[in-house]
Amino acid sequence: MATIPQIQKGFTRFVDLHLAGAFDGWQKALVVGGATLLSLNMPQLVATYGQHPMVAALGVYNPASGSVDIDTLYNAFVPHMGGDKLPITIPKVGTIKLGKEEIDLIVKYIKEA
What we know:
This protein is an alpha+beta fold. The protein is 60% helix and 14% strand.
């Protein structure tokens, strides 16, 4: 299980080390600034989405402890990705593609936080 602060720190570390350097100028400001704001808002996002029936049915969020079972999430989805990467489009910036390697790093950083 990972706490929300661990997720925030791991996510921010990934952005700083692996995404920020791919951009410069205003695009870098949008990526890093947006990631910072997303990280700061993560407790509210997790609490909100954790109440969604689909997320609740997955059983990976414990609202009492505010923790997320990242190992269960990882094991349920990542092995089935194959070589495909998940495209994430950032308006006015471009598309970032996250595959197993990137997800492994994010999970590693969360666990180290």
